[in-house]
Design brief:
By secondary structure, this protein is an alpha+beta fold. It has two domains: 3-147, Adenine-n6-DNA-methyltransferase TaqI, Chain A, domain 2 (Alpha-Beta Complex); 149-195. It contains six helices and nine strands.
Length: 195
């Protein structure tokens, strides 16, 4: 099965040039710097802006999926429920593709997991174009091979992935705390010796 059979895929909003900053605006733009595989979309970091182009924007809704079209790693991130609590409307920056699922028999969380795994990432890698910055075209994304197991199996995989994600976040926190502690000890040593 191909991705285009279960979803529609659109490019992000075509801002011309730099995305304008409009403090206090009810509209935000999600850019590459606002997303991470461990934290998803950091809504509080998103730039408040207004739309400059003529095109009717495809506002993001919970359950949409963003794919980074450029760069060495094609991150796949889900638009989560937290968007609603921001009280703002959001669009994706031009270097994302926005996937909206057409069918109910595949959960967005599962598709995000699937597209972040090695087989899909290898497919993106092999079909990327460009020498300095790699990018994938919409047609490549539309043809991405997809496997849709039963909903029960999808839920089991999601729950396992979530547990693993929690563990990774916890480990990262411990590592960061450890590094801060070491830094503090080093500073104390220097201060104690009058440097």
């Amino acid at each position: 099965m191909r991705l285009k059979q279960i979803a529609t895929i659109n490019a992000g909003y075509p801002f011309r040039g730099k995305i304008p900053e409009v403090p206090g605006s009810a509209m935000v733009a999600v850019q590459m710097k606002d997303v991470s595989l461990t934290e998803g979309i950091r809504w509080s970091d998103c730039l408040e802006t207004e739309l400059t182009g003529k095109r009717e924007p495809g506002y993001l809704t919970a359950g949409d999926i963003l794919v980074a079209a450029r760069g060495s790693h094609n991150y796949v991130i889900q638009v989560d429920q937290a968007l609603a609590s921001t009280g703002k409307q959001a669009v994706a920056a031009p270097h994302f593709f926005v996937i909206s699922l057409k069918k109910k028999d595949i959960l967005p969380e599962f598709l995000v997991w699937l597209l972040n795994q090695t087989p899909a990432q290898r497919y993106f890698e092999q079909n990327a174009e460009g020498t300095l910055t790699k990018s994938i075209r919409r047609s490549v994304l539309e043809e991405a091979p997809i496997v849709v197991p039963s909903l029960t199996k999808q839920r089991a995989i999601i729950s396992m992935a979530n547990t693993l994600g929690e563990e990774q976040r916890l480990i990262q926190r411990l590592v960061n705390n450890g590094e801060r502690m070491m830094g503090a000890i080093a500073n104390d040593l220097y201060q104690a010796h009058g440097h």
